[in-house]
Task: structure prediction
Amino acid sequence: MTTSIPDRVAVITGAGSGIGRATAVRFAREGARLMIADIDETNLEETRRQVAETGAEVVARTVNVANEQEVADLIDAACQQYGRLDIMCNNAGITGGGYGPVMEDEADTWRRVLDVNLLGAMFGTKYAGRVMREQGAGAIVNTASVAGIRAGAGGNPYSASKAAVINLTQTSACDLGEFGVRVNAVCPGLTETGMTKRVFDYARERGKEDKLGARCELRRYGRPEELAAAILFLASDDASFITGQALAVDGGNTASLNMPGMKV
Result:
């Protein structure tokens, strides 16, 4: 079974680095035509360059997913450019805040994280869903997190936002299923991306890189390309009977309680 998406039109947000960039490059190699978006114009241009090197059609657009009109314009631009929309990857996200107790959290931090992580995914689903509903087909893949499945993988605002993305995935799948539109999510475990750079830099500076991912059953951290492969699967016809699901791509981290001190 070969997963491919020849000539499919895909929009990917948060494409400037990490999982978004890896997904854009993988989609391009599988034959997709792309509209990629990110708030960071410099990083986005680097992704556009890498995608263009594959020979794929690609258009880059600077977008703040927390702005509803910018997301609406992004979807409209993709349809104007390519005439249809087959795949929407709501991948843009931020961490926001630290790992302190909820008693110390700031409301502004929560609002910022929810605006990007949750509303950004909702806006993408809203406007892509409208197009796909009319087409009678389409696939939406949201990037959630293992932090949305259980505690300990992220700070309070981030974890809550990703749990909400998982629920949005389920409710949207119910809304769009009768129109032939599938909605799923991937839940990355610890993966080396721009978002997690601080964690990796900290570990490497102290000679503790071997500890990263040690609490996963596979005893390692993930690579963006591994998440891109999962996103490709969910976006492709190989997942034609899968919708409303949150797929953990986490090296087995959520397979057990995995509490501190439980493993050697």
